[in-house]
Amino acid sequence: MLVVALVGLVVARHVMDALAAGGFFATGLLVDSDSWTRVQRVLDLRQGAGWFDETVLRLDAPSGLSLHWTRLLDVMILLPALALESALGLAPRDAVLLAGAWVCPVLHGACVAAAVHAARALWTGTGPVLAGLLVAGNPVVGGYSGFGRADHHTLILLAELLALGAAVRAAAWPADARGAAWRAGAFGGLGVWVSPEALLVAAPVLAGFGVLWVAEGARGLPPGGAAAQGLRASLGFTLAVAAGVLCEHPPSGWLGGEYDKVSAQHVLIGALAAAVFGAARRVAGGPARRAAMGGAAAAVAAGVLLLLRPHALNASLASVDHGAARFISMVSEMRPVDLSPVSGLLGDAPVALAATPAALLVLALAAPGWRREGRLAAAVPLGLALAATLPATLLHRRFALDLAAPACLLAAGLPVLALGLRRPELRPAMALLGMAVAFGTPLLALLGAAVAPARDASQSVAFREECGATALAATGRRDRSTVAPGSADPVLLANTINTGPELAWRTPFRLVGAPYHRGGGAITDTFAFFDATDDAAARAIAERRRASLVLLCAPWPNEEAAAASLLWRLRRGEAPEWMAPVDLPGAPAGVRLFEVRPPRPDAAGTQAPSPGG
């Protein structure tokens, strides 16, 4: 009952945020570009797009953007949207938007319940509830799970928590150890089905059984069976990702390889892991012999994988081209965690790392006792997952969500360990200290925000008021009597790539640039268009992209562009003769719209097609 109340409080918190001024119910706005793209993709599916059609036609115009996302979250949005249509009579567009706004708060509640369930295999007393509280209050989890965010990251976290909970049970050999091993692998595979980044947790779950197999018989570890458990987990993983391949690819693509999307290479990873564990079951001898034989088998498996899929270890980054790489380097969540003395250690680092210090302390304090009690095996999958996700997070902040899964489950035990001290008089103080360490790190972020050096406030205010997607979308009114009047769904080139998905949803325009690694060509063309110092080169890009309109947000920072570039010339009001300014009454001062004029007749008297045709 307490878990139900905790889940309800988490969802209620997100609803209260949505009801506040500036929240979803006041503005009708989703949180970020990914959310706008997701609802567009679900609406396309609702309106008849093919199940295997991964192209969003309103982005990366004129050909459309091929996305690496999978259909699991789409279905979780579409089914409630259909129910809203039936029950409330909403139009498909409105129903999809509302269902998309709800999905992540509901998934956050499910993550809290999954954390409580997982922690029950590790902690007694208040530990499981504390794990749920940590997941409920983790700043990164909350940020990715807010109302109005239609994003698959919280679904990845849910799969990871379920996989870790099952792995702890499988490693500790309870009554249902065999079933737990199957579930550990299957939930890890489910996470990879959603996104290959879940390998940060799924791979340590499988590797944990290998570590237990090598160390079998050591004090604190159960004797025998680790290789069999690893085999079961590997087969569960293989079946889950194979189901993902069948659901996400047409038969012609079942054997193909996509590094950024569940595909045959992930089935190969599971099959190779199963082969290693199958061979391990036949190896006899002590830990040294097992380590040598197991290491050799794992090296052969890794060699086979890299021979067949050379970029398998790079995951989604293997699909990034030069154009997308330039943009990705600007994305804050892809940057390293800031560890500088003030803005980092008092701001960025506590948010990204949250419960991690407490988790590391728990491993150090609890390991000796677990070893004496024969419970050390349960810590192996969690420790390996922490060891994989922590350096990944330090390199790229976005992986802080994956780090939250093992960190919160472990950190919840710090107050529990304090209450188990042999000296009763120390227990209350140490329990309070444990609670402070486990739950207090996000407060440092608030302190850091108060004392960190102020950034360029004028630029941030200008961007928010004049370059925000909402302000730009307001310029794309539905009445286009004076804006590209002869073109259906005209193509628009904007210098603010992040705003592309919202503009595509809220205006009648198709956008060229969008912030996705598969859209590197569109990103390259967008940068090249506005960076161009040669009008002919800029015009050639507009014609190739069939752009009828150019949208400029003047305060958008781009210090790399030359003073003679088209971007800076448009900022100064010096448009080339083939671009005509369009009047936008009521638009923010920094927003300017230009219509691309058709080419002039050539020497033969013919005229090239209009870019918007």
Automatic annotation (TrEMBL):
Residues 1-20 form the signal peptide. This is Uncharacterized protein. Keywords: Membrane, Signal, Transmembrane, Transmembrane helix. The chain crosses the membrane at residues 66-84, 96-123, 129-147, 154-173, 193-214, 226-246, 266-284, 291-308, 349-369, 376-394, 400-419, 431-452. The keyword Membrane applies. It comes from the Bacteria.
